[in-house]
Amino acid sequence: MNFLLVLPILLPLLTAATCLLVRRSRRAQRAVALVGSSGLLIVGIMLVSTVMRQDVIAVQISGWIAPFGITLIADRLSAAMIAITGVVALCTIVYSIGSIDRRREFFSFYPLVFTLLMGVCGSFLTGDIFDLYVWFEVMLMSSFVLLTLGGERGQLEGSIKYVTLNLLSSAIFLTALGLLYGLVGTLNMAHLALRIENVPPEQQGMISAVGMLLLVAFGIKAGIFPLFFWLPASYHTPPAAVSALFAALLTKVGVYSIFRIYTLIFVTDVMHTHVLLLWASGSTMLVGVLGALIQRELRRTLSFLIISHIGFMLIGVGLLSILGSTRWAELPSDSLRRGAVLLGLAGAIFYLFHHIVVKSALFFLAGVIERLEGTDRLGELGGFATRHGALAVLFFVPAFALAGIPPLSGFVAKYALVSASIRADQGVLAGVALVAGLLILLVMARVWVLIFWGEPKEQSDTARRRSDVVRLPLMIGPPIALAVISVAMGLFAGQVFRYAERAAEQLLDPSAYISAVFSGDTNVMHDELRGTDRGTP
Amino acid sequence: MTLLLAITIGVLYACALYLLMRRSIVKIIIGLLILSHASNLLIFASSGLRREGATLISGDATTLSGTAPDPLPQAMILTAIVISFGVAAFSVVLVHRVHRAVGTDDLDEMRSTDT
């Protein structure tokens, strides 16, 4: 049963290794990649069904008990993230088979995708914050190579910024870990949660400072204001398949880490840490969408929109600030604050799921349009609907799901976040979210009109030649599948939202998470809660 | 000793951040390398400096007798060194490729993908 927790890491690793072994044959590589990504999807679904029955499952690698060993743990949030990663992985592989050129395939494109997936899955499953750092590096290293693979000038220029800022963030992450270990003497996340409760008040300031260092580190990766500048400079440069994979997963790993550590570990000083998160979320929402408004290329517009959406997701964690010094689990069940915080975090989790699906669909479609027309400059496109009517409909679904039009999935998520902000007396934040939502609608409408309406522009020769060789069905299949998932998430919003709500409950009341890590070993937990054996060894 | 180490770490961070803000990409890479050294030293310093011997359990015992330094930070530093070595190798190659593609190492000349 617990072997299931190792599979999301092991499977991509094995797939990457097998792809490298058969790298001389493109056909064999493609087959292995398809099998590997379908396997990841199946494992993800099995993981979700397991945590729906057992709440939290944990495994200690090679039997070393926590907090000494390496812990892998899945609650509802991590399990769902693995499942969605599986969906994105399968879609990316199918799309890549249809669109990636020969040279990239020979230069280990597929193995790199799978090592990236391994890093992503590892980050979602690990129960140890130093391991999180290591998985981040695994993910970053593959993303560096995927971004530069092909060596076009734009790619190289973009990757200089991407590499520099992400390495800076890693160094800050490592610095924070060193300070944290010096302060509390552990890096196991559940153990940290127990120990930080007992930190003497005079050290509380240091803990908050470490929390803020981590916010900068994760903020760079997630792309929150004012740390996002690497994202729009680099995301539009690689092939569309890579852009979509990055847009779907990389920033979300940063968001997931923020969700995890600001609900589990750094909850002792919410008046400082989480209020700052609220400010960050508000400004990220606005700056992202304003940046998107002035873009003239499709993929750049979408890149800026990612930033805006990250802001929406941060509302959920930021709302924890209204709890003050009380814990969520200690509030009476009819308390207004309790309901508002739960709704906000559940909305943010729903938003996270929805955004991965929708944003990858849009990046895939941007690639299709670029293939058919030879450009993604909005000024040179137009009249696409007259020639490709079906594609116009297909683009409409994720574009307006992103904008939050009912009954598509984005509406539910935005509604939950705005209503939670109002209930939490954060009226200004709710207003900012509504304005940003409206502007996102404007951006998507502008993009849709510029691409699909109007007179068709003269097609360039290169575009026509390219569209001859295109294996179009393979490129259109994945966005269709993702659009269907988005519509389904809107139609079955009740079920999905209940799942998100249970996931949010698990984040807000981490007792099940902690006891799963120590496998019910109450001695350790009681010792910690009494405050014995505290401090550095 | 701790004070000396703390000052060294501070100077290293300052140098690294100064280099990161330069326009030349070569200097940025050097800055990143120094930054990773600084954070490794910080892990080492924050776990406490001690004069005791190695953390070894003698052959017939099952637990550690007496006090000993914590070996975990050293293991973490080792991991971080390996990672930063790999990253450094990649970034040096990247700088080389960028220099060949763009023909300069000035970041201000690389704005074609910016917005």
Number of strands of chain A: 2
Helicity level of chain B? 55-70%
Number of strands of chain B: 0
CATH architecture of chain B: Orthogonal Bundle
Q: Please tally the helical runs of chain B, counting DSSP H or I stretches of 4 or more residues.
A: 3
Pick out the low-confidence regions of chain B.
none
In this structure, how is the largest beta sheet of chain B organized?
Answer: none
Based on Cα principal axes, name the global outline of chain A: globular
Integer average pLDDT of chain A: 85
**Radius of gyration of chain A (Å):** 23 Å
| Gyration radius over CA of chain B | 20 Å
Structural classification of chain A: mainly alpha
Estimated share of beta-strand residues of chain B:
under 5%
| SSE ordering of chain A | HHEEHHHHHHHHHHHHHHHHHHHHH
Shape of chain B: elongated
Biggest interface, chains and residues, is: A-B, 43 and 41 residues
Number of helices of chain A: 23
Looking at this protein, list some descriptive labels.
heterodimer; A: 537 residues; mainly alpha; two-stranded antiparallel sheet; 23 helices; 75% helix; globular; disordered C terminus; B: 115 residues; Helix Hairpins; 3 helices; 0% strand; elongated
Protein architecture, described:
The complex is a heterodimer of chains A (537) and B (115). Chain A has one domain (2-530). Helix content of chain A is 75%, strand content 2%. Chain A has helices at 7-21, 26-54, 76-99, 102-106, 109-125, 129-148, 153-184, 189-197, 204-222, 230-234, 240-264, 270-293, 298-318, 336-373, 384-387, 389-403, 409-423, 427-452, 461-469, 472-491, 493-508, 511-517, 522-530, and strands spanning 57-61, 70-74. In chain A, α12 (270-293) runs antiparallel to α13, α16 (389-403) packs antiparallel against α18 and α16 crosses α20. Mean pLDDT of chain A is 85; it is low at 531-537. Chain B has one domain (2-48, 73-109): Helix Hairpins (Orthogonal Bundle), CATH 1.10.287. At the A-B interface, α6, α7 and α10 of A face α2 and α3 of B.
